[in-house]
Fold this protein.
Amino acid sequence: MIVKRLVLGFLTLLAIARVFLSLTVSLSEPQIQGRLELYQTNLVLYASQLKLEEENGDLNKVISSALGENPQVTALEKYRQNREEAVLAKEHFQTQLNQLSEIIASDNQSDNSLLKTKVVKTDYSSQAKQLQQQIAELNKFIDEIDLKQGILLAQEDKTTEALAIWEQLITRLDDPEDEYSQTAVLLTNLWQKLPKISSDSQAIIQENLDSWFRDQSLEKLYQLANNQTELSLLQEQQQLAAANAFLKLALISGIPVVGGFSGVILLIFLVVQLLLKKENSILATNSNKSWDTPWDGEITWQVLIVGFFFIGQFVLPFFLGIVGFNVANAGLRIKALYVLFTYILMVIGGLGVLYYSIKSYLPLSEDWFKAKFFDNWVFWGFGGYLLAIPAVLLVSLINQEIWHGQGGSNPLLYLALQAQDKVALVIFFVTASIAAPVFEEIMFRGFLLPSLTRYLSVSTSIVISGLIFAVAHLSLSEVLPLTTLGIILGTVYTRSRNILAPMLLHSLWNSGTLLSLFILGSPV
């Protein structure tokens, strides 16, 4: 028993150190939220070109009102903000890389270094390569922003500022073969006082620019070349793209707006009912009813540390490292399969530890891990989802003011944003909307929350399990929103006493996120 506790204590220290390190690292990483805002900004720019017939004047006013008075000025501010955040992130990664390079150099020079092992050197080398890759990606992102900022300024008749940005980009890259440098040179030629048109201008624009920025550059090119045929065809395509973009914006905004409004109404109803009916209200259902927990805190501790954190943060990475899996340069389908495969391994390991830890207490009372299909779990799950929309969105807005685009994000979100491959999207859906809700709800709501009620009140157990659930995602900027979601998931589970209810809520939430990412990332 003493040996077991010593081992658990050691694993706990490792897990805490790993979580703390991951959260610290995420502090300097950009959120995907900024990228999402740029995708949405591009849709707004496209939609702002939508022009209906004169008899639809009122509808035109509605569209203009929905998109804002000056979408281009708003877009320019968004791009500037994202550039500042990207520069800060790049500087932090460069500092980390410099420090790591000093450690590696010092280690190579010292024969007595305790770190002079092949494993540690390989680990340092891997970290250095990862940092170099992140810096390279941020450099490309900054270059892309500079190209697009210039186009936005040029469209606002601020040509001098646009030319200055492109000239700085050309000078910084100092590489005529670089795609961003070539595009900057081309844009400079199009918007300078004495424009120049090269034979490959159209090809470069179509290859190196996208969305609204590509169309504006092509329009400028066709106007200078007096190519009325291509210009007319482009303008027709722009109207179709504008209508498509407006429809996408309506879909993306429709879920949070309609769901949020419904959630607020539902919340008001539930609060009023609670005040009137008190212990007989829906919110008060099972509110003070704890579980009959046969095991002590050590078992709970064991399952959480070993079954979730240790397997996920140490065992799996070690195993995959030995096998030699490296999907950094793999295609999207391979990355999606890799994510699903690793998650399934984590599920098998986590549930295996859970079963091994509680098997001596089986059979459990009917309240434990109850999954009753012919029950009201659908209403609890869907109702919880409606309540989660306004609550999490409100906390997310506050959260953005705290972190200002930093704090990291779930890497799966960025992969899903790129997933215009239907096969990859289906695999991501299976991972995020089926596997994750089932496993995480069994671990955090099915096991952890009830186990905590042996020592704490139901309400306190809901909050603590929600906080641990949020921290387990290892992104500092997501702790507050995910804690809010975790509290709602815990409330739904304690009231419904059916694990299917929080699973449904969790699945709906992840599915809505994936759908929004797919719509944002799809071509107009």
Summary: The radius of gyration is 27 Å. Residues 159 and 191 are 7 Å apart (CA to CA). The chain has 18 helices and no strands.
